[in-house]
Design goal:
The chain is an alpha+beta fold and 392 residues long. Strands 5, 6, 12, 13, 14, 15, 16, 17 and 20 form a 9-stranded mixed beta sheet that branches. It is globular. It starts with a strand and ends in a 16-residue tail after the last helix. The structure holds flavin-adenine dinucleotide. Flavin-adenine dinucleotide binds next to helix 1, strand 3, strand 9, strand 12 and helix 8.
Length: 392
């Protein structure tokens, strides 16, 4: 069977791309290894650019009831002076971003996709072989009814960190294993969080508390693998005590914690992002440390840029050959997330002083904060149309 575009991987990135492209004239196949997106415990901080994209492709009305605005970001280091605040009002904004549970993003994308006429969702189905010439790519897909062969002008690999597309293209990766994991849960508070997102760095990791609906926060505790294993072994009462003790009382008293899930942390970068008619996006191209909450944000930036680029092409054949890759790259955020992890995981005296001075200085310098915030919000450099608020 022939398609114009085949997307391998129906996670949040592949799904959002399929839906953004469904507004165009193409026949698209979205292929995913799993039947349905089962529980996804991740709680995602979407920057302003990502929220604009979701508004522009009309997914926001479904997500809005579950989205909590971030009005202020507060960064501190346990046992040291220096607090950094980034305030939406100070920067002339309504919000710095919104926190939305990943399960709602997945559901919103898939319910919208089921109502489109030009996207065929093929799942559970796994890519097993891929070959290509200058004009067309041929894919072998293992489905419930046996092996199928599909062809396409353009193939997008959005199949995550362990990408089969990347492997079949023989693209190697550069990896940094932090030997850390992230523990994710939801914490109920005795009082309102006032829409403040907290990031608290400690000797052995970091605790992020992101505002959710109904006096709840998303807790993301990143630390060494052994420490996270220890935290997972505690019962809920013991875990809550540890969290309250390590995070402090900036959010008042913590009442309950929900189910805990863990994710291994690594940074991975594909050495090449495209080969002939095949392009990698999202985690298949780059996996980031969630400390800076940028992995999905960067991928949605790629979705916006790619959609805009494909809309300008009269033919899809060989069109990726001319796609300028610096279009797709938001290196600042990648450096930011790697740099933050490196900086705060080293306990060296000169670094401590530097980061203390840096954090105090940063808090007092509005132009630097504006620049930093515009990068973190996805609004630095070239901004694709779908990342801009539609005022019509
Ligand atoms: C704890 C945690 C918190 C995070 N918080 C944030 C945040 O606040 N903000 C932010 O921007 N980012 C955040 N991230 C990062 C973000 O979750 C990821 O960047 C994003 O979800 C990547 O999505 P993806 O679709 O590229 O990959 P995935 O979600 O891994 O999806 C890949 C899909 O491909 C399918 N697949 C794999 N192999 C095949 C195959 N051979 N054939 C067919 N299908 C296949 C899989 O079934 C899967 O559905 C966080 C990450 C973690 C771990």
């Amino acid at each position: 069977m022939k398609f114009d575009i085949i997307i391998i991987g129906g996670g949040m990135v592949g799904g959002a791309l399929a839906y953004a492209l469904s507004k165009g004239p193409w026949q698209i196949a979205l292929i995913d290894a799993t039947e349905e997106k089962t529980e996804d415990a991740r709680l995602i901080a979407l920057n302003d650019g990502s929220c604009c994209l979701l508004k522009n492709i009309e997914l926001w009305p479904t997500l809005a009831p579950f989205a909590t605005p971030i009005k202020q970001i507060h960064v501190s280091h346990r046992g040291r002076f220096g607090i950094t605040r980034i305030d939406a009002q100070e920067l002339g904004l309504d919000a710095l971003g919104h926190v939305v549970p990943a399960s709602y993003i997945n559901n919103a994308i898939f319910s919208a996709l089921r109502n489109t006429g030009n996207v065929k969702i093929i799942c559970p189905a796994t890519l097993t072989a891929l070959s290509q010439d200058d004009e067309i790519a041929t894919l072998t897909i293992n489905t419930a009814t046996g092996e199928q062969t599909y062809t396409a002008d353009v193939v997008i690999g959005a199949d995550g960190s362990h990408s089969t597309v990347r492997e079949l293209l023989g693209i190697s990766t550069q990896k940094t294993d932090y030997r850390q994991s992230a523990l994710v849960t939801i914490t109920e508070l005795a009082r309102d969080h006032k829409n403040i997102a907290y990031e608290r760095f400690q000797e052995n990791g970091a605790i992020a508390m992101l505002p959710l609906t109904d006096a709840r926060v998303a807790t993301i505790w990143s630390a060494t693998n052994s420490y996270i294993t220890h935290l997972m072994q505690l019962d809920n009462t013991e875990f809550l005590q540890q969290l309250q003790q390590q995070f402090g009382y900036r959010l008042g008293r913590m009442l309950h914690v929900g189910k805990r899930a863990t994710y291994p942390l690594q940074m991975q970068q594909a050495q090449q992002q495209k080969k002939q008619n095949v392009l990698l996006i999202g985690n298949a191209a780059h996996t980031l440390h969630p400390i800076a909450a940028q992995g999905l944000n960067i991928a949605l930036y790629e979705v916006a840029v790619l959609t805009e680029y494909l809309q300008t092409q009269s033919s899809l054949k060989s069109c990726l050959q001319n796609l300028p890759l610096d279009f797709l790259q938001q290196n600042f955020s990648r450096r930011l997330s790697h740099g933050l992890t490196e900086l705060f995981s080293k306990d060296l005296l000169p670094l401590n002083i530097a980061r203390q001075v840096g954090m105090i200085g940063f808090d007092q310098c509005i132009p630097i904060k504006k620049k930093f915030a515009s990068h973190a919000m996805g609004k630095a450099g070239r901004v694709p149309r779908l990342f801009i608020k539609n005022t019509e």
